[in-house]
Design brief:
This protein has 226 residues and is of the alpha/beta class. The protein has one domain: 5'-nuclease (Rossmann fold). Helices cover 59% and strands 12% of the residues. It has helices spanning 8-16, 20-30, 38-46, 55-68, 78-89, 104-115, 126-133, 135-146, 154-164, 172-181, 192-204, 211-223, and strands spanning 2-6, 32-37, 69-72, 92-94, 97-98, 120-122, 151-152, 169-170. The strands form two sheets. A five-stranded parallel sheet has the order 3-2-1-6-8. Strands 5-4-7 form a three-stranded antiparallel sheet. It is globular and about 55 Å long.
Length: 226
């Protein structure tokens, strides 16, 4: 059985675009287990359900999580999460002050994906994705964004790269492109404008996909004849 471990943002991007049913169809057709961690579940349900703004979405999402997602719970992971959280948030510094890069939920999900040898870690946020895939590219992006020289803790960098290099990372846009290829959007015609609308909907609701990447995905799918 294949396994995908989800971060909070990727599920929110899919939920807010009314694509959860498509995600479940993809799960069933691909015979894959969906995993969330306790911290991710807390961000998706426990926190928003206490307020008003996102309470409805949380209640609706709760039924999907209970039926289609497995929750990973292991208190022995707490020390590992704390250690990796410390590595990541003490990686880049400006004038002696370290930059906070990630929060507990996304680090916990990353560690679980790695420890389970999951087929992929599904995450929409660019920072945690690049920490796992290419931390030096993340360093370059922060220097451009902040217009200043950013120091690197090389010891932490080596540890992070040793722990997570080689992981497969997917975003909500990647999953929905696969669903598009499998023609799981049964209510819609499959054409360039639909795919463009799908990818932009995900981008505008949190998925870190660039306009150039969207155009490239559309080009690839058109060449496939979809």
């Amino acid at each position: 059985m294949k396994t995908l471990v989800f971060d909070t943002g990727s599920i929110i991007s899919i939920m807010t675009n009314n694509l959860m049913d498509v995600l479940i169809k993809l799960k069933e057709e691909s015979h894959v287990d969906f995993i969330v961690t306790n911290e991710v579940k807390k961000e998706l349900l426990d926190i928003p359900i206490q307020g008003k703004k996102f309470k409805l979405e949380a209640i609706m999402l709760d039924s999907y999580l209970k039926k289609y997602f497995k929750t990973f719970s292991n208190v022995s992971f707490n020390n590992i999460v704390n250690s990796v959280l410390n590595l990541c948030n003490n990686l880049f510094s400006v004038n002696g002050q370290y930059l906070k890069l990630v929060d507990r939920a996304e680090v916990e999900a990353l560690i679980v994906a790695s420890s389970m040898n999951a087929d992929a870690f599904v995450v929409d946020e660019r920072t945690i994705r690049l920490l796992a895939e290419n931390p030096m590219k993340l360093h370059e992006l922060f220097e451009r964004k902040l217009h200043t020289k950013i120091q690197i803790n090389n010891r932490n960098l080596r540890e992070i790269m040793d722990k997570f290099s080689g992981m497969t990372i997917l975003r909500s846009c990647d999953l929905m492109t696969i669903a598009y290829e499998k023609q799981l959007f049964v209510k819609f015609d499959f054409h360039e404008e639909f795919l463009d609308a799908l990818l932009w909907g995900l981008k505008l609701r949190g998925c870190s996909v660039s306009e150039e990447e969207i155009n490239e995905i559309i080009k690839i799918e058109i060449n496939k004849g979809l």
